[in-house]
Amino acid sequence: MNMKRLINFCGLLLFLSFSSFGQDQEINISGTVTDASTGESIPGVTVVVKGTTTGSITCAQGEYEITAPSDAILEFSFVGMETKEVRVEGRNVIDVAMESELVALDEVVVVAYGTQR
Question: Residue 11 and which of 25, 49, 82, 103 are 20 to 30 A apart at CA?
Answer without folding.
Answer: 25
